[in-house]
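Narrative summary of target 7.
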Amino acid sequence: MTATNRDFIDRTLIARTLSVSGGVAHYSVFEAAGVSRARLGYAVKAGRIQRVRNNWFAQLDAPDDAVRSARVGGAATCLTVLKALGIWCVDDLCLHVAVPMHAGHLSAPTDRRVPLGDPARHRVVLHPIPLPYGLPTGAVDTLDAALMQSVICQTRENAIVSLDSALNGRHLTMARLTVLLSELPLTYQRLLRLVDATSQSGLETKARLRLRGRRIRYRTQVMIDRVGRVDLLIGDRLVVELDGRRWHNGAEAFEEDRRRDLELLRQGYIVIRVSYVQVMNRWDEIETVILQLVRNREHRWSTLHRKTA
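Modeled conformation, tokenized:
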């Protein structure tokens, strides 16, 4: 085999190995593919790939979170993985990294020559993993593992929101989630009865959990003639619509929301339309109004409503 052919094969193997590993891979993966350490070193010198850390290599355009996690000494996990997949979770502006239990020689995510020291100073959250479970050979954790880390890492309410989002986005099934939660302590297994795969947004999940906490009965994603599906329906006629930032921007969405509201009012429904900020930061104001309407039985059809329906 000529040197040119050998170089072409090595370049192809390296590119393919990095591609299937998400852009970042440990030397053991290259070794299994038949690529020597010397050939990897040559590829680094030639500027075709980058050395992230000892025994870790990456594409020049590899995902930033994967590169930074490998540089720390582990794999991206928890909220970092969920955000990349579009699964709703709290954005704490931190890099979540799974590392071996009792791991030493961890580095800063921006420079492998700088010791990590205090993770908080570098906005890094470490997730120590017991050795029997090991770490992925790439620099990104599996979705299953990342979800379970997020369940432990987040508040109970936010964990349920993430699970709802994963289910609704068909990232996993309820059967698979049942198996995953069964491996966690009982307090986390109890979350299973609170998840709802039909939830369309994090706002919807938060709202329904808070209504449940006040023993207010509701239904989600209820179909109403000439309106379509509404986010939450309390009793017979109290509709709560949740305006997330993503789906309610733009002139067309604005006009459609107003058309729906007018049609709901024409049919005798009461409409409460609330924003992202109100749900996240001012829920007590929304709750006060809902409780008052429920106490006054405004959420039920009256005799007059039924006669004029």
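Residues 1-60 form one domain.
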